[in-house]
Amino acid sequence: MDLLAEVRARLAAGLSDEKRQQITRLLASGVIHTEVGEDGKKTAKVLVTYRFPCVVETCTGTGSSGNYTTVRRVIELPVGRQKVAVG
Fold it and tell me: What is the pTM of this model?
């Protein structure tokens, strides 16, 4: 709870890129899974896990362990020579 309050205060005051990266590393992680199908095409997905301090109880299907709630999201990644739209 104290960490969350401190993060909010620092965000309001402005953070350097290095500090933002440190906070992100503490609260989120990603694992990339790649596969090659029988047709030879590659697929890639990233499983992103967000970790939040428990401040309220929810019924959203998220996991809860100790003082933290985790939310997982799977994101399809482009592979090969595809152009990726940024924005």
Answer: 0.48
